[in-house]
Amino acid sequence: MLQAWLERIPRGQIALPSVVVAEVLRGRCEFALKATPAQFEFAHSQLLKEMRVLRRFRIVFPDQASATVLAALLKQHASRKRYADVMIAALGERRKPYRRHPQSERLCWPAAETAIAKLD
Predict the structure, then answer these.
(1) Are 4 and 96 within 8 A, CB to CB?
(2) How far apart are CA 34 and CA 39, in angstroms?
(3) pLDDT string in tens for the chain (120-residue length)
(4) Of 97, 104, 91, 115, nearest to 11 (Cα)?
(5) Dihedral pair phi/psi, residue 81, rounded to 5°
(6) Strand partners, 15
(7) In degrees, to the nearest 5, what angle opens at C-alpha 27 toward C-alphas 22 and 29?
(8) Is 93 in contact with 60 (CB distance < 8 Å)?
(9) Ordered DSSP codes for 75-100
C-alpha cells in the first residue's frame, strides 16, 4: 500500500531525514551481519535492495541550525527513549531551505508539529 501511494507522488517531492535512512540501514546491516548460513544470501540481497530504494530519494541532512533546535528540543523533552524522533523533529523545525549538501539537492522539510506532539 505504501509503495502504491509513493508511486503517485513525484520523487522530487519526497525527502527522507538522514536519521530515518540511518535507522533503515542499521536494521538491514545488523540483519546482514548476524545472518545464519540459511539467511546469508537473503539478508545481503535485502541490504542491497534497500540501498537501491533509498538512493532514489532526496535526503535531508542536519546543519548547525538543526543541531541548535535539537539541543532546545532535548531540554524541552527529557526522554531519551525517542532520541531519533527528537532528531527528526529538529530537522523538521527548520523553516528555511537547507543548505546544499554534496549528495542532496536544496530541500525544504515541512514543520514537524506531528512528531513533536507524539513526544508529549
Answers:
(1) no
(2) 9
(3) 667 877 787 777 778 899 999 999 999 999 999 999 999 999 999 999 999 988 888 888 898 888 998 888 888 877 666 888 889 888 887 644 444 444 444 333 333 334 434 444
(4) 104
(5) -60, -35
(6) 58
(7) 90
(8) no
(9) HH---STTHHHHHHHHHHH--SPPPP
